[in-house]
Amino acid sequence: MINIPKGTKDVLPGSSYKWQYIEETARNVARAFNLSEIRTPTFEYTELFKRGVGESTDVVNKEMYTFEDKGGRSITLKPEGTAGAARLFIENGLASSPMPVKTFYITPAFRYERPQAGRLREFHQFGIEVFGSGSYQTDAEVIFAASAFLDKLGVRVKLEINSIGCKVCRAEYNKALKKYFEPNLSKMCEACRSRFEKNPLRILDCKEEGCKKFTAEAPSITDYLCGECSRHFDGVKSLLDNQGLKYIVNPRIVRGLDYYSRTVFEFVSDEIGAQGTVCGGGRYDGLIAELGGSSLPAIGFAAGIERLMLLMENTGIKFPERQKVRIYIAGMDEKTRDKAFEIATALRLKGISAEIDHLNRSIKAQFKYADKLGAEYVAVIGENELLSGELKIKNMSDGTQTAVKIGQIESYLK
Ligand code: ATP
Ligand code: MG
After folding, report:
1. 214: Cβ–Cβ under 8 A, 6 or more apart, which residues?
2. Residue among 101, 67, 108 nearest 86 (CA)
3. Measured from the CB, is residue 125 less than 6 Å from ligand 1?
4. CA of 95: how far to CAs of 51, 89, 90, 386, in Å?
5. Does ligand 1 come within 6 angstroms of the Cβ of 279?
6. Hey, which of 277, 278, 283, 308 would you mutate to test ligand 1's pocket, going by the most ligand atoms within 8 Å of its Cβ?
7. Span 215-230, mean pLDDT?
8. N or C, which end of the chain is more exposed by having fewer CB within 10 Å?
């Protein structure tokens, strides 16, 4: 027997409805916020992620599935959705359409990580990316879209926001961080020592216990924001306040990508263990230019679908039941089974879910089977029914029976 690869999961026929429910909820929210779906390839040239996610991130340093294809090109399975979305935006000239360009996606993503609850090697994200607006209203809108999605699913999460400023104020802040970390640098992990040189801010995102004790006391970015970044952040907060969306400002949130600027945010749960962030996002005003496009602001988020599902299951949130079989039609012998097939097919072509026996079961066994399928109605075809062209349709929930002409079954069920 060959097993499933480590860190991946099957979706079984009995639980795919949970996926469909979460995806449908995502699509409905996207519609309400006027976001259009985009789809990008599962793999891209490695360079896109190196530049788009950033060389100082764990994702690029340790987690990418990278290989050479037969043509000698370096290819990487997408570890996240933003870089591909930005490439799509630039490559297809979307900068010349009316701004902003508001998009969403539902995609698998691949990261070589140590698998554990809420951390997989193939996982799925619902993400949105809005290109071409730098206004704080857009930040608030994107945060509200994430919040609406999580709300609709019924999960309880906390919203944490921060601003990591622009190039100007971050330069000042990075200086302060370097000054603060320098005396203890030798006691910090290797990754942090390299972050110290490349992007000190990212030290705040380190998951090593040894480094966390130093980051706790580090200076706060909020004390270093320039006037414009401060006003932008105030604007976001006031819109959230006005709409009654609760949040806390957490100056330690810096997010995974290197090209974030200004607003960053996470929706966090304390009910799924260490991997508590179900949704993370932020503004990335530097990315489009970094990838060779014009200098355009952008903002987005990605929510991890597996983590959300885990949270929903752990907290006993009910998924709506999956669609049941409307009617089960039982035959007894070859002729009546053929008739059952004919009736079921006609109903199916009208979009009514109908089922029949495929394994020559007895009538008794078929009733049991229909019950297992959750069939709402069952009809048996015998010699008499063939002759009369009329079936007795049994309502399985109250046991009542109704005689219905074969041609009338569709309207009876509607
Ligand atoms: P973490 O700090 O948990 O590693 P991250 O900062 O790497 O998260 P992002 O790159 O921001 O995560 O991805 C957005 C969301 O995707 C996360 O909030 C999480 O819900 C989900 N996610 C990220 N990595 C994984 C993974 N390996 N398995 C399952 N879900 C994941
Ligand atoms: Mg990670």
Report:
1. 181, 184, 187, 188
2. 101
3. yes
4. 20, 7, 7, 65
5. yes
6. 277
7. 93
8. N
For the cut 70, the answer to whether the pLDDT of residue 226 exceeds it is yes
Which amino acid would we find at residue 223? D
DSSP 202: G
Residue for token digits 């990278």?
A: 66
Sheet holding 298-304, edge to edge: 36-37, 101-110, 122-131, 298-304, 277-283, 261-268, 158-163, 248-249
- Given the CA of residue 278, which atom of ligand 1 is nearest to it? 20
pLDDT tens-digit profile of 154-178?
A: 999 999 999 999 989 988 999 999 9
Q: Over the chain, what is the mean pLDDT? A: 95
- Nearest-ligand number for the alpha carbon of 111: 1
Write the DSSP symbol of residue 3: P
Nearest ligand for residue 304 CA: 1
Question: Which residue reads 């995974």 in tokens?
Answer: 256
- With left for phi above 0 and alpha for psi between -120 and 50, is residue 154 left, alpha or beta? left
Distance (Å, whole) CA 339 – CA 331: 8
Taking the centre of ligand 1 as the mean of its atom positions, its distance from the CA of residue 304, in whole angstroms, is 6
Interval 8-14 mean pLDDT = 96
Residue nearest atom 19 of ligand 1, based on CA coordinates: 304
d(CA 391, CA 402): 8
Q: Are 341 and 362 in contact (CB under 8 A)?
A: no
